[in-house]
Records
---
Amino acid sequence: MLLIDCPCCGVSGEETEFAAGGEAHIVRAGPGSSDADFASYLFDRKNPRGVHFERWRHAFGCGKWFHMVRSTQTLEVFGVYKADVTSPPQDILDRVEAARAEGRVK
Amino acid sequence: MTQPNRLDDGGVLIDRSHKIKFFFDGKPYNGHPGDTLASALLANGVKLVNRSYKYHRPRGIVSSGPEEPNALVNLGSDATHEPNIRMTQIELHDGLDATSQNRFPNLDADIGVLNAAASRLYPAGFYYKTFIHPRHAWKYLFEPVIRRIAGLGKAPTHPDNSQYEHTYAFCDVLIAGGGVAGLVAAKAASEAGARVILAEQTERLGGRLLVDDDAEIDGKPARVWLEETIAALEAMDNVTIRLRTCCSAAYDHNYCLLYERSGDRGEAAQVRHRLWRVRTARVIAATGMIERPIAFHYNDVPGVMLASAVRDYVKLWGVSPGEKTVVYTTNDDGYRTALALHEAGRTVRAILDSRKDPSGPLVEKARAAGLEIRPNTGIGKAKAKRNKLEQIETVNFDKPEAPGKTMYCDCVAMSNGWSPVIHLYSHSGGKALWDEDAVMYRPDPANPPRGKDAEAMVFVAGSANGELTTDAVVAQAAEIASEALSQLGMKTSAVAPSVTAVTETTTVPVWCTPSPGKAGLGGKHFLDYQNDVTVADVALAAREGYESVEHAKRYTTLGMATDQGKLSNINGHAILGKTLGKTMAEVGTTTFRPPFTPISFGSIAGRETGNLFKPVRQTAMHDWHAAHGADWEPVGDWRRPYRYQRGDEDRDTSIHRECLRVRNSVGILDASTLGKIIVKGPDAPKFLDMMYTNMMSSLKPGKCRYGLMNNENGFLMDDGVVVRLDEETFLCHTTSGGADRIHAWFEEWLQTEWFDFKVYVANVTEQYSQIAVAGPKGLELLGSLDSDIDFAAVPFMGMAEGTVEGCPVRAFRISFTGELSYEFAVPVSFGLALWEKLHAKAEALGGGVYGTEAQHILRAEKGFVVIGDETDGTVTAHDVGMSWAVSKKKEDFIGKRAMERSDLTRPDRKQLVGLLTEDPNEVLPDGAHGVENGKAIGHVTSTYFSPTLKRSIAMALINGGRARFGEVIQISTAKKKTIRAVICDPVFYDKKGERQDV
Amino acid sequence: MAAKRKPRYSIFSLARNSMSHHQGWEKAWRSPDPKPEYDVVIVGAGGHGLATAYYLAKNHGITNIAVVEKGWLGGGNTGRNTTIIRSNYLQDSSAALFELSRSLFETLSQELNYNIMFSPRGVLMLAQTEHEKRAWQRTHHATRLNNIYTEWADTKRVKEICPIINTDPGARFPVLGGLWQPRGGTARHDAVAWGYARAADDLGVDVIQNCEVLGIDREGGKVTGVQTTRGAIKCGKLGIVVAGNTTRLTDMAGFRMPLESVPLQALVSEPIKPCLDIVVMANTVHGYMSQSDKGELVIGGGTDGYNAYTQRGSFQHVEETVTALVETFPIISRLRMLRQWGGIVDITGDRSPIISKTPVDGVFVNCGWGTGGFKATCGSGHCFAATIAKGEPDAVAAPFSLDRFSEGRMIDESVAAAVAH
């Protein structure tokens, strides 16, 4: 049972209070895209064994979507940030790099 | 009823002033408060308590704790029947009624023992090699027999009527185990100001200090220090001590389970088991060690026990399991048992020690007491008489071929060293390291289970970390506690107690004792008592290529019994290593899985059973429906009236009455479960244009429009009427089951994709009751209402706001029945009042209520689709003939791109059609398929007898069906027959839609 | 080194070996060192991978095969699942695949000369809402047309088939009936892997354990071999059959997959005498249960909602499942959970598997089985072997190709049930 910090309302809650929303920062392919690009947008996932940038919703809390960076190997959480950005903040990327340097995550 | 094995003195846990009467296999016995069932039976001289799983061998009590593999019993009967309970964990109480299991007809004369006679035929994994032919014999012959022989206790036959409950708790430090290490850690943590929960699985604190009081702590006898420390902890506000509470598991991010057996002692307890879900900053596992048995030939006969358990029975319960005991040890601790028995006045026949030159204070003390010590010697084999240990034969490790010495004894106390209990460290990924010197797995400090911030979550204190002597245990526990606390930014003022303890020398383990005389094959050196796994079985697995520790485990079932290998795993892995020529570290170990000891399903379910299992969402009119004959249908979390039953009429009678009522007069329906979502903001029109396949931005305020919603994969996911309340405000209706999902869907797109859109979304499903009024007498009904709305002036797909009978309403002129129809939305607190008023008026006009099934029939007569019936997640708007609702003008909407893919534009896709059976009275079965040339060409999605048309009607999805109107097809039904039906337009009634417009 | 044919297992060989106290049994499989080159390398010695190798050797005459496994054979999801076998699928393509598999299970013990304990004890899918009832009835008609025998059981029949089910009409989700497949059942999961390993080994296949693939070598868009912890191995064709870890391998081969890996939970009770002779699945309340030959109630839980590679259980799924089962089978309340665990499954966009060629010539994938792979072991191996041998999918495998995702040709079984598999 993960412990998750919501960056929107500040609450630290049980995983069951939240809903996972899959890989983050996927760019939508709409009309005009190729079949391959559209299928890739809809289905292809990085699915790393390691650092995962992902979306969550505080479904039974403030209702807000946000991003979390988490190791799928150890479940370590590197940070959370709001949904209305297209790339992760630098301080979280730095923490990921530090963990990689220490060999905690791939 | 005397207790022949009860010692005259001793037994710190029992109250000799009271007697308790209990029953085992129907026979009455006496014990004392404080006894366990195990100690009481041993006091009464009962040795044989169970039969083993595979060979049905007679078995006795081996241990004194949760590691017990043999002594499992059935407790209670009917609603209180419970199988497989360890005697060592049952606190004796008045009237306790236990029965042995896995025997027929009784323990002494079990016919399953015939199995044992042929045991040579079934080594490990024998069942993989035989029972292959003839093919059907496995199912009909072999397997049923095996199933009956296998299993342990009797299955329950009655529902359980006990109460269980869940509790949540939060703390800084959760300490698992109330022995000396746990107490030292608790003291340190509490004095640092931490919130502490101390969970102890037994009913007592003190652990082995209650048994082994040969140490001095802070200059006091251990017992005195113990009492003072417990008193000090109990006085601390920040410390919660829970007895009879086992820390069962430590899950990710330090979510821990405590299993409290609060009501397992016979009395009528309010709560039988309580499951605590504890989120703690750190866990300190002070979970102790478990002693290992020694493999020797027939080491399973009743009377062969762990040395520490024998000592426990003597010291804690004043019971000596035997008159004459042989101690077989590989370490110093076994001597403590010998000394305890000796001091209690019982005979210690000899101490057999695997070591060549045993020395140290405990050995000297035994020598001084005149006990016979035989170094370099073990038990070669044991022999039973009348299902009880009668004698053993010794073996000299240097000369195993030489005949040994026979010793008559009724108890063997064996000790093969100790295994730290590191389960909690391992549950969430902590690793263990084999310590060759200490002969045990210890937690690997470099690889702890890590939490959310990669912090070490679980710290292991005392003997669970491999410390053997009290001084080392105390020092290590104090140190590890202060390390855990310092991680939390806390500092303790507690000073580690100073301890004077007896020193001990090293263990020289014996993994398999050679049998004296000619080295024989076919020995029964048991490793896993409960599953009857022997040394030979593990060696066989290794020889046959089942070399990995997991293969050997699964092939032999070593460690898979209800004790999960607490006694057997290390010994078994050592045998595997020996056979393969590998070290223990190379062999590796299996994974510890939660829970530490089994926990009841009842406690996991807690209160969430019966009426509290997934509580029912109720509309404002729920109780009214119940009072008026509602025959409920679960819909999502709701229950809706499927029909309203009069007397004991059948379903069709009620449903047809309700249908005809709507067609001929007027019906009212509780539509409150429909999802209602407010979408508001300057960009709301733009947003809804993306969410629906049709255009919503062009909808005029005060108007309604039926909308379809796709998922991004191009398939229909929901539908409903959208009402534009004003320029910036829309009310989107969804299906009953879809409200929460669609609300979340809207939020997802708004928050994660189009976060620049200025739109707010609110789910107001539960804020409004919704009532449909439908039927030709609808206007007459409405005209009789006290209202400021001119209903006749509201156009089809229009809306009006006003009051009706004093209730503030929105009235939507929309129809899902094909009749003239209005839906009223009122704040939920007005729902019942308006409903009752409308119902009275409807009844006055010869109308009344209708339920969900009538609604389904009425809409099917009109060819309206139901999402989830006509669609199934693979159906597009075009498939159901609603291309008119798919905008061609919009550049983009959800699912637009997906609908352009090749498979979604195939001309031969299944398309929605109507079906009319040639025999009008024949109703097609739900889900029946059309067949052509033996192949399915589509399926029936909705099928009814239409009371309006007085014939059967059906809707179906048929390959290329829209081009096939008028064709007759065969519908295959379950009974190997086909029904002929003609394909037609799915609108069966009032094709021009004249009735809804009046 | 070609393997020599092994002596057969039987009651006679067992009796003969008992004379020597079972000292004479041969190894079930060799522990060969990798050769420098194979015609086909299969990555993953789970049930599916071993079955693939077995059918390649047996049906297609390709015996120069290595099955490389990073751990021990059968140690992934093969050894962690709840052992259910059924083929009562709605979609024709699924029905064909799972029924092929189920029918191969029927005779697998005899074929492999290894008792895999296939037990057609019957599988009952409960209907607990009107909607679910219609969905199962539709499935019932579909299976019948696909020549898969199922029955629609009404509530009374459900109670006859399984007396311990709570059929109280006042229950929160009353049992309205069920879809009954009497020829579905269970098998011993480990034995399936062991039996295929032994039989494949007998046909000359090298099963190489403790051999992790570190890289996939390609030249001009074609596979040439793999780099492993036990050295480089050349191969003409490469089959990837590694369940939850598929994307780790396909990343090495340089293409992306429509997959996500999530933990799936399962648990068992302590063993008790027989009380449940069939497999019961209750999808509305989310729980399913059977009783093993050993007597344990074997219970399947849900998947975590998020990607993870931690092969361990979390408690909330246990709680949800056990609560549902206590409601469905009230007698189990006083029984106890002995052990819970997790496995990593990979899930596709339509929750149906992928058996396919890939963008890299010579690389084939068999994955995406989600929560339901065990029952497909035989069929999956059978048609994947054909696909590898011919370089093109056979009729059973063809619908499960990767291009279905760009064509929109979904195989969606969730239409019939709240839970896909």
---
Amino acid sequence: MKLMNLKRVGNQTVVFENPPVILSSYSVVGPKEGQGPLGKTFSKIWQDNTNGNKSWEVAESKMLEEAMQGAVSQAKVKADELDFMLAGDLLNQIISANFAARTLGFPFIGIYGACSTMALSMAMGSMLIDGQFARNVLVGVSSHHDTAERQYRSPTEQGSQRAMSAQWTVTGAGSLVLAQTGVGPRITAATIGRVLDYGEKNVNNMGAAMAPAVADTILNHMKDLNRTPGDYDLIASGDLGQVGIQLAKEVLKRSGVETANQFQDCGVMIYDPSQDVHAGGSGCACSSVVFAGEIMQKLISKQYQRVLLVGSGALHSPTSALQGESIPGVGHAVVIEA
Amino acid sequence: MFQQIIPAFIVGGLICVIGQLLMDLTKPAFTPAHVLVTFVTGGAILGALGLYGPLVKFAGAGASVPLSGFGYMLSKGAIEAVGKRGLLGAFSGGVEAGAVGIAAAVFFGYLVSITFNPKG
Amino acid sequence: MPGQNLRPPNLNITPQEYHNLTMSMTPKPNVIRNSWRAFLVGGLICAIGQVMINLLTMAGLERIEAATAATAILILLGALLTGLGVYDEIGKFAGAGSIVPVTGFSNSIVAPALEFKREGYVMGVGARLFTVAGPVLVYGIATSIAVGIIYYLLHF
């Protein structure tokens, strides 16, 4: 059977024939993120991490709802024209996304990519639109510092010291509406990453666990499209942190891909060192809110012409870590052009 | 009121330094829970070998307040109970000696947990 | 990656080389500074305990009773400071200086119970009180029983 019009190029990349438009973006964050260097780029800043909800888990789900509703109303898309909702988060069974989907009511595809969920959802949403399976797709992710701490690490009132390589889970939710037609930046290509594990077992050093996978995705992406980092105004990894991005740069350099100042990390961008976050921000929302705010704004103003967003995910669980397993990583990339 | 306070401060501080070195220099999987278990077991064993008792005499709270002191109390209690009750004492002695500490931990822990809320 | 034949292009680094690279690029804890802080705070908590024992002895308690009562008071203090949201701030600074004293034991009991209160009073608070206290009691009591049995066998 011969397949016609294959949009796949190289190893792992797809190029969109009719690049989907990002009609709108909306971000909701907690106070710590609001006090950071990107504070002015977020759509909404909560006064505290609970916002009157009875638990942090409920708060996170409400945050995701708020971000998604914000994106939908800004896109001026009618509810019955929104064909799919793609969402995910860090919690067991992705309950934040599930409960947000319950409120919003769109046909729902739950996605888990750990902290790379945003980039992965953008890629999948674009495939649905370019494949003519959808007119408009709603994409969104959330994370919350306190829900992540109690699931992955220790109770929040426990007096333990965090390692210098540890990262701070971003409390926030970011959402986009992707469409077949319209005005706005476009997603032109996507590279789906493969899972790599270079043996890092330290859950306090996620950056080191994810860096090889992110580097591998960037390497394959460049090879697939016959490009170099110089073809991009910005290559933004999701949450490698201070340690991870240095490792990724070095690994890429040894593999023949030279990156310079255009390679930055959302986890490093979102907080100021004075906020005592050690290696930087992490979580699904990290890449999501930085993209939905700062990066989208620079794409719309044409300051950036072409951006590569590489979500980074650590695909372990508290159980696998307790059993002494190392941490597999993955990186998913999407190209967005102004 | 300030009797023995200097030995208590110094010995207590040094025992905590041992804990800090354990946390900083071992594999990242060594959590606070592992530290606590190590200290209570260590204190119980050192107490059994007769090495912890003199430390308590010298440093007072400096040896009894760290969790190794709790372990010492448990094994000392077991040894004394064996002397009085024989083999059954091996089972009853530790728990009896630690009874006040355990009860206080459960009771105050529960009270505080239901009164306050975590702040994140 | 060991044992994998992944489709090229692949990263030009072996797992061992990557491990070495990670070690060189990951910031190490400042052991001297952390130990000094642990010493100060741990010593201070023990000194406070000693003052309590002295006061209780002056009030008429036997030495052993005073030590036990002081321990109970410190347990309460650790629990209170945890409930007030202060103990984790102390812990960030003091590390083992706040974990090793019995106040740290108290903190490790209250912190998970507080956290999981939203899951109810039985399976939330009740069950989680012993998340960390459990192992401490298991190993402490088991060791004391082993010690007792060995003592019995050696002397009787």
---
Amino acid sequence: MRKLFGIILVMLIIISQLFAAKVILKVWSHWADEENKKAVFYEVARRFEAKHPDVKVEFTWYQKTALKPALMSAIPAGTGPDVFYYDPPWTEFVTEGLLEDLSDAIDWNNVEPWAKEMWTMPDGRILALQLEAWSVELYYNKDIFNQLGITIPENYQFTVDEFKKVVKKCVQAGYDAFSAGTADRDYPGFFVGEMLLLHKLGKEDMEKLYDCQLSWKDPRVVEVLNYWKELIDMGAYPKNILGIKLGESHRYFYQEKKAAMFPMGAFYPGRAFVPPEKGGQPKDFKLGIMLYPSWPDGKGNNWVLLSPGGALAVSPTSKHKKLAKEFLAEFTNPEIGALWLNKTCVPTGLKVDLSKITEHRDYWNMYFDVHKNSKFFVGLSNIKFKGKMREVVAQILNSAFPAGLISVKEAIEKLEKARLEYLKEQGQ
Amino acid sequence: MKNKKVILIFLLPALVFYILFILYPVFRTFYNSFFKIGAFRIKYVGLKNFREIVKDEIFWKSAKNTLIWAGASIVLEIGTAFLLALALFNKIWLHRFFRVAWFVPVLIPYIVTGIIWLWIYNYDWGVLNTILRTIGLRNFVVPWLGNPKTALPALIVGTTWMWTGFNMVILLAAMHSIPHTIFDAAKVDGANSFQIVTKVMIPLLRPTFSNLVVLCFIGKMRVFDMVWVTTEGGPLWSTETVATYIFKRAFKWNVYDLGYPSALATLWFIVIFVISLILGRLIKGSEIYEY
């Protein structure tokens, strides 16, 4: 009996030592309630663990708002994760050195060039792996457009004058021209204005505007804001735009069918292509995509804003940096890119094995056809602007301006004041 | 001596918890307010953060909103609570039901309360606008939370709905604790009901009022959840409170500096502390009633 007890004890010790020897790779990520995205992570973890039997990948799922404060305190304290979800608007992580260099860890040939470029620092370091990326799209309801006799141009792009007539027709027929909601996001209210600015200014000057180097009093900017204001005053947006949440704005467009167009990120399918009983678009809904209108003298009419969504990064205080980087490298496989697209319907910075795309082929064909001549510009107000400038843009251009609460003159005054203050803070 | 040791042993767990999770964070926040704090860099800046607060327009806007919220809530919550408590004290019809019904909102978390009021104020299908449309008052239909003029009052109504029940229960308990002989004596002296309430009951409830005012004030000076769920401080900062502003400065402005938000928090702590003391002193008065 004593012998048996001894053997069991020894075995227990050995087993416990075996488990104790396993390295735990901690991954903290957003998407607590997005099973499709989690499924991709689990598949990557499965492949990674198969190659590293002595490592266990341990996930902690967060909501984004809780994740950021947790990371900001845990990483400097050395108690944070090895790999973490990183949201590109958190630009202070770059300036504060909270992202480990990944340049030598990943096969960057399997990553889209723009995704590599956006994280490549002047000194050659590459700081994150861009998983999600979405362009700013203008979806429309084909049935409403047919009913109103509106035909989309062959190049999918109205001129600004034509577009004004389209908006007028929609409003006169009792529809809101645009579905939009800014109650829980600080960017979708600005989509139309921001795309109009990009088309007018072109890439270089848009970059200057984001960097606060271009005045909001620039005549071209004023012209765009005046044009946008005309649309707003026609009644283009829902009266309750400030009270509508992102999810509700989707349903406003495809379930309630109260709006003819929907300026939205290309993550639209992630919400719309689920069964209608789960909040998706009805089976018979006819979705179209068009380009934002062009200016006669526009310098960037073929540019499209591309917002990087969720990325992955390695903590500089991780005790398992090499393993963490190898875990990220596991993502950079075109098969995983295809799995991501099939599961989430959200464009990605990973290269994709197109032969393995099985879901929503019609949608992707339409998307790629509309954008066959598009150039993508990585940027969006909530990523590019910082400090008070970001706050003022969110309050004015994302909320008050599209809600019709503020005039062009007032908006420009507030934006220009914030710009000059920002420059002063930066010592310029 | 032995007794003291035993007391200390019993106190120790709570004391350790208090020091670690309350005292230390508070003093650390005070300390941090004199620094510019990055992830791996800390730089002493003296009073610079406080000097910047003076010039910070959004802070002043948020401070004004918060003070309006606190002031209005004191009047609305405690005033309404007193009337409700009086009704229950006089045993109105279905008083047992109303006692529970009026108290229930206190039990609902702020987040849920926020969502309830978000729905009530919804422009298209919210109950408030539906009623206004039904009774022919279409001109009064507005996006309640999307208009800078109505957003703050709309949220104040929400918190008033939530906290009135709490104040009511405290006041009712205080009313019941007044010996009935005092009211009888007043009646014998010829006082009518109104005089009994104003000349007898309210003065005797003064210490309770004082505590409720301070509690209500402190609660509203820290209000965060209700705003965050409904408006996130918009439109045009019309519902920005100091608490939401501190959070935004710390985590939403894409600027890694925990020093400035700490200075905001420190300053606001001092403001709350001083005003609470003054309010307590003002309302409590020097008389102590014994019965």
